[in-house]
Amino acid sequence: VKCRPQVWAQCWEGAGACLCAWRACLGLAAAMPIMLVLWVLVLQKLKREMEALRSSSRGLLQSYREEYRDCLSEIVQAVQTAQLHCEALLACSAEAGRLEQSLRDVTERWQRELRERRRLQDALVELKGNIRVHCRIRPLLPFDDEAQEPVSPDSSVSGGVVHAVDDETVLVECNRPGHALINKTYTFERVYGPAESQRAVFEDVCPLLTSFLDGYNVCIMAYGQTGSGKSFTMLGPHCQEEPALPSEPRGDTGIIPRAAAELFRLISEDPSRSPEVGVSVVEIYNNDIFDLLANDGCRAASGAKRQVLPTQQGKTVVCGSVRSAAQFLMLVGRGLKLRAKQPTSVHAESSRSHLVITVTLATATSPPWSDRSASAEPCQPGPRSPATGRRQSPPVPLRTRGHGLGRAAQDRLGQVRATLQLVDLAGSECAGVSGVTGPALRETSCINRSLAALSDVLGALAEGRGHIPYRNSRLTHLLQDALGGDAKLQVIVCVSPGQRHVVETLQSLGFGARARQVERGHPAPRKLR
Ligand SMILES: Nc1ncnc2c1ncn2[C@@H]1O[C@H](COP(=O)(O)OP(=O)(O)OP(=O)(O)O)[C@@H](O)[C@H]1O
């Protein structure tokens, strides 16, 4: 009873709360259908979306299946093509094998032919004799005085007193007032008239290069009086410049540039040999030997040449290693710039020294004719050139053989060396006629003495004397192996057709005739030919 008002208040609150709950229940009951409707609507929407998704995934699946089928058919096609290609490849490789075999057969046949050609060429050279003398008559030129009406170089008639009667005969016919009548003929292996081209001259010399590559030592020299065309024959016109390769427009290049081109062409034909080619250029001036390639960097610029003096190893000269005809000619051109020249009564650009270009061929592998198998030990590199920074070939002794053998000698390294000497002799001249004095007279008398020594050596060889005076001059000493050994020696006697040179012409032709009389032993037969 005491707490009655509070109880009533609490009951009242409870009743309020129940009312509120009742009201909420009523609200909920009223909202339930709406919620149900909404729930149904949501469910329907979800169902529709799921349907749409299902149908789209079915489409996607379908398209993936189609793509997969396409890919599969493409793969099958690719595999089939690859199979076809494989078959074609197999057919190709079989064809390549057949071609390779036939290439091997052809190469073998070609090498056999090459060996046979070399054998025939050597036989031909040997048949022609180890010393061959050709004679070349140059055309009359303005400086001959007699050429009032200059004779065309294309004319077969020399217009002077020297005539090529045929391919082998020269006729000298001269009737000068107050002199005995001259009517002499000389026979040589080949006579070139004034119209004959440089090419014709080279073609007869060319087989010697094959012999050289086969390992024979070869010497080609031009002999004749001043102005008779020796330098023209050996080097070509403008012979003081670097000689041009024959492929260049000028067709009148001489033997040396043509030989350089031919030599490297022949070397490239047989890459299995790959010999090392060295070039040295020396001149004999006033009976002293000068190395025209000596190059110590500072002196080369001023164009100094070095006298070749005896050293502990003997006389040595610089031997430049070359890999192409162009490099070869560059070295020759460098040497030519230093060669002694002096105007003479005959022409303005007279060479006053004997030029000797020596080409050395060294091969590490034994060529077919070699008796001993050579070792493959490489050549020791030479010193570095201060001018070019490149390695030079080691200096080589001036006389590269010294055995009197016609074929190359094997050195201590097992290398086989053959040498080709290309010699442009200084012109013989009659001092009285040319009216020279002073140093020029000394030059002339040195030239004449060395040429006389050359003639003496040939005379002694022709007569088969026991003592051959090689040491009478530097020239004969240097050329000893070419003259007395069994190197293949080719002498080209150059003559001027002019009447005023008839005495020297007769002397040159006499020299050629004497050279022809020299008989030397044939090279020993080769073992492995
Ligand atoms: N066959 C030729 N055809 C045309 N010109 C030539 C012929 N031979 C020589 N000559 C010319 O004659 C001149 C003298 O020739 P070259 O210099 O070759 O004579 P050389 O015998 O070498 O004389 P040297 O001994 O004095 O040096 C040169 O101008 C050269 O071009």
Automatic annotation (TrEMBL):
Q: Keywords in alphabetical order, please.
A: ATP-binding, Cytoplasm, Cytoskeleton, Membrane, Microtubule, Motor protein, Nucleotide-binding, Transmembrane, Transmembrane helix
> Where does it primarily localize?
cytoplasm
Cited InterPro entries:
Kinesin-like_fam, Kinesin_motor_CS, Kinesin_motor_dom, Kinesin_motor_dom_sf, P-loop_NTPase
Record Pfam families: Kinesin
The places in or outside the cell where this protein is found are: Cytoplasm, Cytoskeleton
Give one GO biological process term.
microtubule-based movement
Q: What are the GO cellular component annotations?
A: microtubule
User: So where does ATP get bound?
Assistant: 224-231
Which molecular function GO terms apply here?
Answer: ATP binding; microtubule binding; microtubule motor activity
Q: Which PROSITE patterns match?
A: KINESIN_MOTOR_1, KINESIN_MOTOR_2
Q: Annotated region Disordered: where?
A: 366-407
Source species, domain of life: Eukaryota
Q: Which residues form the Kinesin motor domain?
A: 130-518
User: Membrane-spanning residues where?
Assistant: 21-43
Per its UniProt record, what PANTHER family does this chain match?
Answer: KINESIN FAMILY MEMBER 25, KINESIN-LIKE PROTEIN KLP-3
| Similarity comment: family membership | Belongs to the TRAFAC class myosin-kinesin ATPase superfamily. Kinesin family.
Protein name from the UniProt record: Kinesin-like protein
Q: Which organism is it from?
A: Bos taurus
